[in-house]
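Private note to self, pasted from the team thread so I don't lose it. Backbone tokens:
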């Protein structure tokens, strides 16, 4: 662990319906943070997350997989969960290990499926703070507003638009950050260069920022009074309102980009560390005392006694066999190990 405090940890779950672009987003995160030297892709079998033979064959996630990255002195544990109906129970269970979620949405009208609704309902049951990332905006017939509408109308969330796309389909090249009021243009290495907001988006950006402040101010009476009196919030007040609102699950910030084209990922990571909580901020862990059988609580702290929560187990048919031992030493066995733990 490279961090000095529990407050610098984010256990990030990536959820969404099958085929929505979750794993492509996770691969882009690995690449942009330097955890992987190439951008893995599901469609050509080079994904770090979907590595099982059956996953490579189907080009879809069949089980939850894990990785970790470092971003701005924070350790982010990535939990990439399947979204197809047959494998959804695994995702619903693994969400218990998350401290925050990113819901991946496609910007296609009517694209939201029942699997996404089930995942969203489970997140609500667990009280997990959420962000939304609208991906595939580099494709035809995709738009940010379509995803925002489904968040509001189907999932009954209160979306807050933090990004406006610059260009569409083949011309999609970046986003306007309406919090900092600057354009973020995608570079070949996945980074985002800061530029002035394009003239044709200036009015839309001002309108989006006004709506953002109006909704964000509702987290406290003090901010509402400030907004009504001055018609605006300072940058510091807006940042505070966003953090409080997200962590209280009052609204869902919406960011834009493309996982497969690696656009908008650094801005998403910034929001993960700035807006989503550390595990300790979710309160103490609750369990049962093994001796007395009574309910017990443990503080999320390095100074507290050790407590573990097992949220996923794996049966390895080759555990303890000669073939398994060869795999550990780096030789190539005839049949690869099925355990995902060997990739962690």
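Design output:
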């Amino acid at each position: 662990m490279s961090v000095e405090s529990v407050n610098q940890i984010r256990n990030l779950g990536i959820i969404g319906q099958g085929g929505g672009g979750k794993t492509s987003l996770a691969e882009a995160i690995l690449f942009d943070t330097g955890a992987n030297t190439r951008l893995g892709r599901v469609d050509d079998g080079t994904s770090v997350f979907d590595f099982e033979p059956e996953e490579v064959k189907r080009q879809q996630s069949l089980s939850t997989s894990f990785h970790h990255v470092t971003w701005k002195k924070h350790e982010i544990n990535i939990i990439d969960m399947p979204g197809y109906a047959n494998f959804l129970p695994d995702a619903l269970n693994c969400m218990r290990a998350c401290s925050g979620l990113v819901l991946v949405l496609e910007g296609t009208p009517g694209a939201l499926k029942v699997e996404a609704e089930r995942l969203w309902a489970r997140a609500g049951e667990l009280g997990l703070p959420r962000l939304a990332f609208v991906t595939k905006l580099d494709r035809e017939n995709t738009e940010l507003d379509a995803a925002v509408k489904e968040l509001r109308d189907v999932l009954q969330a209160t979306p807050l638009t933090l990004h406006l796309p610059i260009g569409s389909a083949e011309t999609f090249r970046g986003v306007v950050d309406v919090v900092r009021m600057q354009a973020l243009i995608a570079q070949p290495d996945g980074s985002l260069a800061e530029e002035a907001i394009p003239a044709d988006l200036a009015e839309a950006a001002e309108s989006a920022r006004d709506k953002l402040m109006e909704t964000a101010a509702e987290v406290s009476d003090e901010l509402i009074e400030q907004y009504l009196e001055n018609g605006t919030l300072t940058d510091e007040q807006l940042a505070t309102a966003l953090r409080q609102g997200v962590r209280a699950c009052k609204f869902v910030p919406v960011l834009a980009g493309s996982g497969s084209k690696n656009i908008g990922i650094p801005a998403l990571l910034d929001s993960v560390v700035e807006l989503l909580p550390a595990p300790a901020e979710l309160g103490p862990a609750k369990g049962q005392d093994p001796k007395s059988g009574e309910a017990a609580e443990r503080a999320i702290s390095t100074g507290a006694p050790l407590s573990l929560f097992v949220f996923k187990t794996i049966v390895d048919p080759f555990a303890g066999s000669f073939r398994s031992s060869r795999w550990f030493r780096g030789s190539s066995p005839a049949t690869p190990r099925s355990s995902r733990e060997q990739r962690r």
